[in-house]
Structures are given as structure tokens and as C-alpha cells.
Design a protein that fits this description.
This protein is an alpha+beta fold.
Length: 746
């Protein structure tokens, strides 16, 4: 089929959900719909956050998505998972089929055998919306798929009169002794159960309601509580553990027994809701009213293919195509839909709201995703991004702090990382003409957020013009990011014609200058006495005023005022030399050993591609008069930091940001400054591409003389107009037409 056929091409065959499932990728390989509320994914271990002596168990970090490729065991399929985050939560409603003697602990204990099963990657299959494996310990074929709000399981059993479905409501990702607050289950009839679980984790008040339907009746059931029960009221009259239709406690594992014939399949549908059991039942009845697993699988595959076809590419080799479409897949995993089919959702205020002119979303990993993921959405998902911004504005209105989300999920704010980057997402959409959200309301919400004095040194930032290191950790990173966020607010104010706010935030956007030490040429921590801190090592990534970075790389974070930054740092020639040294110098292990997020896999010299703060850095050569070096660096990163194998990601995918960087860079341009309508030109990796905009226009990207050696750009022409300043306007791309690159080797 021709690339330019009007018909969709099956790009799902180039997606490998197993890429990034080992080392630090932390991507779940299970089944989900695009932006789906349900992610049915295998869980391969049960790690607790703390060791017996109370110290942090570092192995839990490997299980941010519940799955590790290196494991040879599966303990079940959970229905909520993060994709590629550097911290975690979720892992709700774990289901595991077994046969034989009943065991309720996932792994062996002194008292009983574990219910885990061994499995082999030879029998594992993963594709968009589908996952299959063989649970070898029980000879059960396990298959899962999902609609937006419902997980669908199909288990094919050997002949067994003692088959079980285990519902483990003790398990969760990042487990600790006090994580489970309460669990409640009802057996409605012999093929339907309902319930909810409340947990206290990264989201400190998270409720997940569910309804589980079975394709055939169970013959008996029961549960075990893992609680110290000091009071049980008059429920003590009952033998609650066997065939009693109510189950309640902090930690519960339930089981349901079946008689299964040889090769008979048992199907389960698991619907989730954040509102209530009635919402879960309505989601179940609305989305999957039938018992046709293959229909759900094909419908979800079609949803995925529709998203993948928004950018059609031809590449030099199949590996590049796998990298591209797997990256596209990753960028459509989150944020997730967070409302029932009737539009009801649980708000940040824990009140049930109904969305009126938008779909509500959650999982906003904004410190990561404002950089490239949300800008990518302004190309591939403008309507969804519009809804996401409206979700952020609803978050602000429901916030007792009157703040936009920082890092939020499941009706909770978890306050992770620095900056208030919802402002970037909003500003980027505004300057690119995306969305019908209320611009004045968005500006007001952004200003409110920027003036909450007790948030992460913000009061001192407004008082001193920087964040003092002796008053707040990561003071330089905070100052730099607040300055950029304030520039974003300036762009909003200018867009709505509010000159007073624009002038105020233009001043604040220059505060980054207050932490630059011209004597040594680095951004540096400054104390409340307005003097730079004496002890300072620009190579160290720990305790030097930066978070997950050092002065060499994070100190280059002034995306809103790059020309001034380059001038401050000595001008073009000296700045290019700094970048050259950054990419070629070596960094001692002692400088990165204290960080889980930074490993050798994602480092080139002292440039860290495996973490987000430096993602714009390869493009900075453009602003210092050396675009050929941007082109060389970008192509090298594409070829070495993204590989089509399970450990092919050089760091956390961070909710799609790492993948969004690749998509932009493979197409030949990148949003160095979200909140600006311009993209910076790099070195395209594709041979051809076709971007289908939501407005109906189509942009064709043609790359003449494309090869592995021809990484330098000789000429760029957009619709017969030559581009000479190595930047291109979003609105010009959105008009469609042809973007032509001519490549060369020298």
C-alpha cells in the first residue's frame, strides 16, 4: 500500500509495547485504549517500599509500572498503571487465574506456597490493545484487552474442577503497610461482584470503584483478611470467610471457584469508576455489553491505528519505523480519561462533578510533558489538549490552594517536581491558536498559581527575585523554572491584551539573571544575604541548587531568553565551546550515584538525555550560529538513545516526554520554547512523512538525499519559501503543503 493512500495503513504492526519494559523505561506492556482509563497489565513481582529495618527498598523503583522484563514470574493483571514515570502508585484490582490447591499469597511464605506462575517471553505477545501469555504453572492461556473504561480478560483453562480466579486487593505498586485504607466487596449474584478500594500512596486519597462480571457462574467463593481486627461489631455472628456476600477490611484477598472443561474459556469484564459502583456498572453496560473478546480487541486496535495514522512515515530501515510508531504509541498512553460515560468524575475537592463542554483527564506529569508531549498534542491531539487544559482549569477551581496542577493524578495533587508548568501548556496552546478554553480564566488561574507564597520557595522568589538556597532546596532549578513559567504568563497576558500583567511577568521572567555568577560562568545557588553560596561544584548533581541535574546542563535552562543567556555566557563562540565540552567530557560516578533517574544509559558526556531538563540542549547550537552541530547531535541521539528492544529507552519515558522528543526530532523540528509558536530545525530521520492536522490540512515532509551519513541540512523549503534562520512557525506548518529538506554529509 502506498504511503499516500487515503486508506489507513496498519501501523500497529510496528509498535512493540515491550520496548522500555526493562532497566528504567518503566512502561507497562499490557492492554489499553488510547488515553484509556483502564490499563490491564501483567505484574511480575510484589515489592514493598521499605525494608524490615525501615530503609527504602531501592528495588521498588524498578517496578514503577508493575512489570520487569527480567522477571520470570507473573502474579496477576492489574487495571491501573503509570507509563514510564519516575515515581509511582496504582496497580489496582489485581486478578490472577489459578488451578489446583488454593493459595492466596503471591509468593511463597512460611505458611503456604505462592499463587504466582512462571512464564516465558517465547509465549508472550504484546500489541496495541492486546496482551497474551502462557501461565505455565497452571497451563492457562491468558489474554487481555480493554475499552476506555473496561478491562476484558479471557483465560483458557485445562480441565479442572478446582479452578480459581483470585482478586488480590492487598497488592499495589509502591506498597507500604499503611497504603490500603479500606476495601469493600459485594457478591451481587453468582457472576457479578462490585466494590471499591481506597489507598493512601502518592495520591493520598485515591478511590477506585469496580464491577467485575464473569461469563459463567462461580460455584463458591471466599476471602481472607490480612488485618488485626480489634472490633467487628455484630458481623462476628457470621462465618464471613466463606460464601458470605460482603467482604470488608483494609487488606483482602478474595477467590472465586469454577469447574472448567478442557480448553474452556472463562471471560471477565472489569469496569472501573472514580465516582462510585453505579458508575462502574454503567461503564460496563455501555462500553462492553457483550461477551465477544475478539470484537473488543479489534475495536481497540482500530482506535490505536487511527491515532498512529495521524503521522505517516517512511524510514531508512524498519528499526527506525518501530522506534517511531512505538514512540507514537507511548505518547498516547497518558494523560488518561478520568470520567464515567455519563461525564461524572471525582474532583480534586473529592466532590462529584459533571463535565459539560469537555472530557476530564488526569495524570499530568507536567515537569516532564510540557516540554514536547503537550506541544506534540497541539499537532496530533488539539481537541484532547484543549480538554486537558479545561481539566487543569477545573483542577484550579477545585483546589483549596487556587492552583493549577503541578503533578496530579486520580483527583489528587502529589506536588512532585518544581515549577508550575500548566502555564506552559496553556501558553503554548494560546500562541498556536489551539482550543476554545476561556483565555482570561486561564490567565487568572495562572496568576493565582504563581502567587501562592508557601509553595516551594515561591514567596521568597517574589521577595528576593530568586529562590535563596538557605531557605529552599533546588533553589537554582526553581528560580530558572519559575522565570520561564512567568514568561509563559506574560505571553498569555499579551494574548488577551492585559498590559499590566504582561509587564509584571516580563520583569519576573528575567529573575533567572539573579542566579548567574558571571565570575565563574555558571548558574549558582544564592543565599538570602544576596551572596552566592561559597561551596559549589558545577559538576555535582546533588546538593548544588539543582534537581536531577547540575550547573553544566540544568544551568542552560533559559528557553524564554536564549540570546541573552548566550550573551551572558560569553557569546556564540564561547557558548558553542561550552556545548561541545558538555557532550564530550566525562562525568565521574560520584556525581550521579545518588540519583535513581540518572544512569550511564542516558548520558553522552555530561549531557543527560535520559532525563528531561536538558532535552532542549542539542538544539541550542542553532541559537549560537552553529546549526550543523545541532544536526549532528540530534541525529546521533536518535540513533543511540532509542533502540527497538526491551531496554531500548535510555531513561524513564516519563509519561511520553522521551518519546515525544523522538517524534519531533525524527520529523526534523523541535519546540525548544513551548509558549512560542516557533520550532527549531534539527536533522530529520525520516525519508518522508505526512502529518494529518485536525483542521483537514496535510503537511508532507520530503527529505532529499536522506541517508545515515547525510545528517546535515543543505537547504530547507516550506511551500516554495526557503527557511534560512533554522526555525519554522507552527501556523505555517498547520496550513499544510510541503516541507522539503535537502541533506548533505559535509
Amino acid at each position: 500500500m502506498s504511503l499516500y493512500s487515503q486508506n489507513e495503513i496498519d501501523y500497529t504492526k510496528y509498535v512493540n509495547p515491550l520496548i522500555g519494559t526493562s532497566k528504567m523505561g518503566h512502561v507497562f506492556p499490557g492492554a489499553t485504549a488510547p488515553f484509556g482509563m483502564v490499563q490491564v497489565s501483567p505484574q511480575t513481582n510484589f515489592q514493598v517500599m521499605y525494608n524490615e529495618d525501615g530503609s527504602y527498598n531501592k528495588q521498588t523503583y524498578e517496578y514503577c509500572a508493575g512489570y520487569q522484563y527480567k522477571d520470570s514470574t507473573i502474579i496477576g493483571f492489574a487495571h491501573t498503571n503509570f507509563s514510564g514515570t519516575g515515581h509511582s502508585d496504582l496497580g489496582d484490582v489485581l486478578i490472577m487465574p489459578t488451578t489446583g490447591d488454593l493459595h492466596l499469597s503471591p509468593f511463597d511464605t512460611e505458611d503456604e506456597e505462592g499463587y504466582y506462575s512462571v512464564y516465558s517471553h517465547e509465549n508472550e505477545e504484546a500489541s496495541p490493545g492486546y496482551y497474551k501469555t502462557e501461565l505455565e504453572s497452571y497451563k492457562i492461556k491468558a489474554e487481555v484487552s480493554a475499552s476506555d473504561r473496561v478491562g476484558y480478560h479471557r483465560y483458557t483453562f485445562p480441565e479442572s474442577d478446582d479452578a480459581h480466579i483470585l482478586l488480590d486487593l492487598v497488592y499495589n505498586v509502591y506498597h507500604h503497610d499503611n497504603k490500603n485504607v479500606w476495601t469493600f466487596l459485594r457478591v451481587e449474584n453468582d457472576s457479578l461482584i462490585t466494590g471499591y478500594r481506597q489507598t493512601k500512596g502518592w495520591a493520598r486519597t485515591k478511590k477506585v470503584f469496580f464491577a467485575i462480571a464473569f461469563s459463567k457462574p462461580f460455584t463458591s467463593y471466599g476471602h481472607k483478611k490480612y488485618d488485626d481486627i480489634s472490633y467487628n461489631g455484630f458481623y462476628r455472628r457470621f462465618e464471613e470467610s466463606v460464601n458470605f456476600p460482603e467482604m470488608a477490611g483494609k487488606n483482602i484477598r478474595a477467590y472465586f471457584n469454577f469447574d472448567m472443561a478442557e480448553n474452556e474459556s472463562l471471560d471477565l469484564k472489569v469496569a472501573l469508576s472514580n465516582v462510585g459502583i453505579d458508575g462502574a456498572l454503567k461503564n460496563l453496560e455501555t462500553e462492553i455489553p457483550h461477551w465477544d473478546f475478539d470484537k473488543v480487541r479489534m475495536e481497540t486496535k482500530e482506535k490505536w491505528n487511527k491515532e498512529l495514522n495521524k503521522i505517516q512515515v517512511e524510514t531508512l530501515n524498519e528499526d527506525d519505523k518501530i522506534n517511531f510508531y512505538t514512540s507514537m504509541y507511548h505518547t498516547n498512553l497518558s494523560p488518561i480519561i478520568y470520567e464515567d460515560v455519563d461525564g461524572r468524575y471525582r474532583g480534586l475537592d473529592q466532590i462529584i462533578h459533571t463535565s459539560k463542554d469537555f472530557t476530564n483527564y488526569t495524570i499530568f506529569s507536567l515537569w516532564d510533558t510540557y516540554r514536547a508531549l503537550h506541544p506534540l498534542f497541539n499537532i496530533t491531539q488539539p481537541q484532547r489538549n484543549n480538554d486537558m487544559i479545561k481539566s487543569m482549569l477545573a483542577h484550579h477551581d477545585q483546589s483549596v490552594h487556587h492552583m493549577l496542577p503541578i503533578w496530579s493524578h486520580y483527583a489528587n495533587e502529589n506536588w512532585c517536581m518544581v515549577g508550575y508548568h500548566a502555564t506552559s501548556v496553556i501558553a503554548d496552546a494560546m500562541v498556536k491558536g489551539v482550543g476554545d478554553f476561556d483565555k482570561s480564566r486561564a490567565l487568572n488561574a495562572s496568576v493565582n498559581t504563581s502567587k501562592v507564597e508557601y509553595f516551594e520557595g515561591l514567596g521568597d522568589y517574589m521577595k528576593y527575585g530568586y529562590v535563596p538556597e538557605d531557605k529552599s532546596h533546588s533553589s537554582v532549578s526553581k528560580t530558572l523554572e519559575y522565570s520561564y513559567n512567568d514568561w509563559c504568563i506574560q505571553q498569555m497576558a499579551e494574548a488577551v491584551g492585559n498590559n499590566e500583567i504582561a509587564e509584571e511577568y516580563q520583569r519576573r521572567a528575567a529573575y533567572y539573571k539573579n542566579v548567574y555568577d558571571a565570575k565563574i560562568g555558571y548558574m549558582r545557588p544564592k543565599m538570602s544575604n544576596r551572596k552566592f553560596r561559597t561551596e559549589f561544584d558545577p559538576m555535582d548533581t546533588h546538593g548544588q541548587g539543582f534537581i536531577e541535574g547540575n550547573a553544566w546542563n540544568y544551568g542552560l535552562y533559559v528557553p524564554q531568553d536564549l540570546n541573552t543567556m548566550i550573551s551572558m555566557m560569553g557569546g556564540n563562540s564561547r557558548f558553542v565551546g561550552h556545548l561541545d565540552s558538555l557532550f564530550t567530557m566525562s562525568i565521574d560516578n560520584k556525581y550521579i550515584e545518588k540519583h535513581e533517574d540518572i544512569t550511564r544509559d542516558g548520558i553522552i558526556g555530561n549531557y543527560v538525555h535520559g532525563n528531561e531538563p536538558g532535552h532542549h540542549i542539542p538544539y541550542l547550537y542553532n541559537y549560537a550560529g552553529a546549526p550543523e552541530k545541532t544536526q549532528e547531535r540530534v541525529r546521533m541521539i536518535c540513533n543511540t538513545m532509542y533502540l527497538p528492544k526491551v531496554d531500548g529507552l535510555c531513561g524513564n519515558d516519563d509519561a511520553g516526554q522521551m518519546s515525544a522528543w523522538y517524534i519531533f526530532s525524527a520529523l526534523g523540528f523541535y519546540p525548544v520554547t513551548p509558549g512560542s509558536p516557533y520550532y527549531s530545525i534539527g536533522s530529520p530521520l525520516v525519508k518522508k512523512a505526512k502529518i494529518h492536522f485536525e483542521n483537514g490540512n496535510v503537511l508532507e515532509i520530503e527529505v532529499e538525499n536522506q541517508s545515515e551519513n547525510n545528517v546535515l541540512v543543505d537547504r530547507i523549503v516550506l511551500n516554495e519559501k526557503e527557511i534560512k534562520d533554522f526555525q519554522v512557525l507552527h501556523q505555517d506548518l498547520e496550513k499544510g503543503g510541503v516541507l522539503h529538506f535537502k541533506m548533505k554529509s559535509k
